[in-house]
Amino acid sequence: MASKGRSVFIGNIPFNLTEEEILHLLSQAGTVTKFRLMTNPETGKPKGFGFADFADADAAASAVRNLNDFEINGRRIRVDYPHNNEKDSVPTDYQQQEAAMGQVQQAPLPPLPPGTELPPNLRSGDAISQTLNTLPPQQLLDVLTQMKQLVMSDPARATELLKQAPQLSYAIFQSLILMNLVDPQVLAKVVEQTSRAGATPLSQHQPQVQPQYGYPQMPVHAAPTPQQYQAPPPQMSQPQSAPALSQEELLRQVMQMDQATIDSLPPTERGQIMALRQQLGEFYLDTQLECNELEYGLLTKICISRVAVYSFARNSSTKPSFFKVSEEVQDALARGKPVVALETTIYTHGWPYPENVALASHLESLVRVHGGIPATIGILNGVAKVGMTPEEIIELTASIDKQKVWKLSRRDLGFIAGLGLNGERLNGGTTIAGTMVLAHLAGIKIFATGGLGGVHRGGESSMDVSADLTELGRTPVTVISSGCKSFLDIPRTLEYLETQGVGVGTFADGREGAVDFPAFFSRDSGTKSPKVIKNEAEAAAIIYAQSKFPLQSGLHFANPVPENAQVPKVEMDTIIAKAIQMADEAGIGGSDNTPFVLNKIKELSNGKSVQANKALVESNVIRGTKVAVELAKLELQDEPILERGSIAVSKVGEFHHSLPPKTDIIIAGSLASDLMCDYAPFSHSELDPQPVMGTSNPARFGSSIGGVGHNVAYAAHLAGASVVLSSAVANDPSGRSLLTGLERNGMTTSGITILDTSEASTAQYVAVNDARKDLVLAMSDFSILSCSSLESVEHWTSMIAAHEPEWVVVDGNWSPAIFSRIVSAAKAAGKPVAWEPVSTHKTTRILQQASRIIRPETVWPHHLIDLASPNAVELDTMWATASKSLLFESESWWHIIDQLGLPSAGARDRFLQVTDAHLVDQGVPQRTIQLLPFIPCIITKLGPNGCLLTQLLKHGDARLTDPDYAPYILSRSTYQNTNVGGVYMRLFPSAEVVPEAEVISVNGVGDTMLGVLMAGLVRKKGAHVEDVIPIAQRAAIKTLRSNDSVSRSVRDLSVELDSR
């Protein structure tokens, strides 16, 4: 047992956290009397753990209870009582204790947990690979770091662990592959070996361990020493005449390997092949479809591109990390959204604090307002940040008053990152050159800034040439600025750019004919621009065309300062001449020259230069964003072209999938890109869980595939049903991303209709949650589900005929016209229809008189909706809308109500027997009865109180006379010549009362329940709704405890539904 005294152990501490910062965090639990961060005695670097002594045991207990698993700097720290120290205080000599602990005989390893049974068609190696692929890179790095620490500190114990669990060896090596930490030459050796006829697999000569826990056999090796990791294995001699394989040919051979060949390889090389196939998109290898050489070549090039794009990010994700791209920027780049890079030298060396913070916020807002995603770039604590958060920008800009903030060009990046590795927490603002390097590494093509550096006057003798110019000659990023300052040598600057192969043009900005290259503060410089650019679309076309050539040089587009903010050329020339004279007299040169001259220009112009500077920066950011938007449009044509309006996804979709031979369920509903914003206060001790309105709030963002239709479909898919999601996306980056996501989850895209972007955009949903994960505000755009091109009856008739489902599920996001077409097509084909209302507003659509969907004559047995799953609020809205539409006044409705056999007196007592007083007082069971003639099966979701099933039973149903069903038979019809048998009503309590602390998210809980319910109805032959509801409720509980809109663990319930 761990001691319960005043001391605690803190582990998994981020290496860039100081003792002061850790102490500040711990002090939130109580007074800390002593703390020591453990360090390596040789290097002095932290080891990632330490000990703390609190003033009393209550404070220590509070730290263990509240700070364990607390996330800071991307890692979750571990706070617990020290297991190897029974004293009630922090050890006085940590180093001696550590050494002594190293000599203590380690206890034997505890019994390892049993393995998991795998489905017959899934190999254990593939199961491990699939699991690892779901983990974020940071978590994989943590696992590798912990394993490395164990190997270094206790090789014998590590060897014993790997012997007992060979599957761990496999998982560790797969992690190394996924993080790009293994020698890529192994791949070439594998291909060479497999091409030799009759070659003996190396694995035949390796000793094997008997598999345990259902995992693959793995060779047993002694624990490796650190030196073994530093050198690649000796290479086999290669015939001199063997030609080198191109990357494309190498990939082609890997793709064409059959599974038997891969299985015969040694584990190391087999793992390399498996990882590469996953990186390139194993989805198309499994289709076994034939394609022509053009298609194959195009796909191979796309795969090579994918590997190249993520190569740097993976290499940079290893510890220590010097390069971090924000999740927002990563997501935007992946989805093809316009991203604009912004430098930070303008804030750290151009504007004082806090004006620089206001300017940074303003410029980022300009990017967002004009349709782009800002990526502010700077160095914070030795780490290059692409896409800085508001808090990071404040930290960087505020530090100019506390420490020396570097002005960073290309040459400085290694220095500041290296010194940061050595313990110096340095900050820096990136110049144009530094920003270009980092933007290019992140994949950003557009960079908007103020002014460009240039050749200084007298540069032909002094060789004083800005690094911005040489960077433009070797980095393919387009820089949009207002030209170079007019105290520089503009003609020689343009000549230098020409020599570097940099294309230069100036925006006409409403002018005709030839225009001057701007001189920063002034629109004219006296030097004509090499090229004139009419508008943003023309600029984007130039960038797009240049990207198609194998060029590594950038482009510079000059945008003149707004006319109303410029300082006339004549006036500015006089001011500049005086400022340069003052610099010469003071002997100011090199990198200090420009700041000195700019400061003197500010003084001599009485601040007009500052006003012009701010105006031109704003103008350049707006112009740059508009160019990025136009470029994003052009780059859409690089993506696979999707045929408009087709039922099956053409070209790409058909290549990925063929139509399934038989479908259990068609789910017609929304498919959307979901963005979740969870308020994340800086300190967990902040009492108010609500974000502050009217300002920026710290948050954690997560994006996923969403939409009610998708959630229901994915839940049914996980529960083992054959599902086709029928929805619509636009031919835009979000739409393509959603299609790829569906395929990765193993779902077909054959039911997705692709619409032109001129008709609609892909559905989007944004939710803002408070610190408790409760919804504060949501915004959505589902207008695509109202497009007139989807109103064709033939569209839905052919969809249902192609798949022959047992059920059709429709969510309430469709327009009334399209909803009506879907239901009509289903009923014409004899398919039952289930309806998910989605929201109170959308619930009213099908019950309003104007929609003409549910009408007085559409009562049992001519009803349109067979099953509905509203919550209690939606049920109330359904009832109110039906009442307002006079549906309860029709003769046909009265006829069915009369045949139900409900007593004219004492009905409340009967409701109380079947449900409870609270529900009866709310009128829930009464309203389901009144809606029953139109919807004969209603499942009302009651949150933590379970759900209420109300069902109309037809005449002759065996349940009417079954004693086991007697407690739930609310009434029996006494009519002889009728198909109405009675009413079944049953209250199902919640499967489990989940404590509030365990509730992760309520999003998708009801969708999960409906999806599993539908899967149960088609998989459990002869099952009734009431037989499946308990399983569906348990599935909902799983999602309640999950970060996902549908918990992947729902698949664990699949076996309970399998009775085919």
Automatic annotation (TrEMBL):
GO terms for cellular component: cytoplasm. This is RRM domain-containing protein. It comes from Phaeomoniella chlamydospora. One of its GO terms (molecular function) is metal ion binding. GO terms for biological process: mRNA 3'-end processing. The keyword Cell cycle does not apply. Residues 108-117 have a biased composition (Pro residues). SUPFAM superfamilies: Indigoidine synthase A-like, Ribokinase-like, RNA-binding domain, RBD. Residues 6-84 form the RRM domain. Residues 97-119, 198-245 are annotated as: Disordered. Residues 97-107, 201-230 have a biased composition (Low complexity). It holds the Pfam family CSTF2_hinge. InterPro entries: CSTF2_hinge (IPR025742), CSTF_C (IPR026896), CSTF_C_sf (IPR038192), Indigdn_synthA-like (IPR022830), Nucleotide-bd_a/b_plait_sf (IPR012677), PfkB_dom (IPR011611), PsuG (IPR007342), RBD_domain_sf (IPR035979). It comes from the Eukaryota. Keywords: Glycosidase, Hydrolase, Lyase, Manganese, Metal-binding, RNA-binding. CDD domains: YeiC_kinase_like.
